[in-house]
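Record type: monomer structure entry
Structure origin: computed from sequence
Chain ID: A
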Amino acid sequence: MKILVLTSRFPYPLEKGDKLRIFHQIRELSRYHKIVLCSLAEKPVQDVDYQEVKQYCSKIFIINCNTTSIVKNIIGNLFSLPKGVQSNKKMPFQVAYFFDNNIKKLIHKIIDAEKPDHIYCQLARMAEFVRDISIPKTLDYMDAFSVGAARRAESSNGLTKPFWRLEARRMAIYEANLAGSFDNLTVISEQDRNLLSFENNNKIHVVPNGVDTDFFINDTILSPPQYKAFQIAFVGNMGYYPNVEAAKFLVRRILPLLKKNIPDIQILIAGARPTAEVKNLAAKNVTVQGWLPDIREAYVNAQLFVAPLFHGSGQQNKILEAMAMGLTCVTTSLVNNAILATPDKEIVLADTPQEFANKILVLLTETEKSSLIDKNLRKNARLFVEKNYSWGHAAFKLKSVLESQVGNKIANAVDNKSSVK
């Protein structure tokens, strides 16, 4: 089967969650099917990144986004619908950001030339380009973006609050409106499927993320604790709002409580695109580091992974990676609702600054009991990821969804042909 994959970003390097998800899905699907990739790009794709993806694709089409057109589309969306849009409502701004009718025509030409058996569209922001095409197609919502926007509105101030409220309303309408235009719908977790509260959301297939368990592995999981440069690490795309808020919460709300017992405690905050707010968190007890070529360095140099995430939606790759590395993770109930690890056996949960501080201090206290608790948590975390979150396991679910739809189309065509006879 030939699958055309449509993305809003080129899938490499893997510094963002959507890129990580689609790259590994492409890699796994290419074992069974021919992949044609069509990606938008706001800046030139580096050759090394292109070659990394090319090994899994029969063809790659990169469509450059014009900055002038992006600005024009966003401003125009304030007053009227862009030409070629089917919805009777105005677009969410994140959809208007990417949509351009000339790009739509170009994508349709690629589809006409390649004649794919199935179109796999990543994210609602790309759906407008193909929703009117009759080829079997699947939309990956990935996260409940409307809920993420609503949560961001709750914590915003000034002019940003009404903007995110408007975006949340538009996105909720748009997500529901898209459902009837695609043969299959997928999402990253059961929690996100429930948050997409439109009619028949039970028809959405849950296709979780995965972890490359051969890459994210730590041979010292069961060894006695060794010296670590940092007691705590938090890793992620540090230009992403939920991660920025989590980093601020860790440093401003949790750290002061920890310093009462461990004055010289050291925290590492690492990840691509740190904002000015994140960089300003650097201090005597806090190291802020940008993009790491090998993110495993951050995991192996810390005793605990702490992620006080209260915003956003979806499944947190960084939690799964840290667990795969055998690192004890302390995070929120919101995060674990999408992962479903067993509290105090495979993961540690906290939802207030004091809860975080209390549980972190127990884990960092060097007693025979705390060492045993930490050792069991590290071992169980690794086993949990191996059992539930390998990329092969996750991609097999997606493969089944895509193949069943094409099979249904073929069967229907045969039935129709037989009835004519």
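Annotation 1: Confidence is low (pLDDT under 50) at residues 80-88, 407-421.
Annotation 2: Residues 68 and 196 are 33 Å apart (CA to CA).
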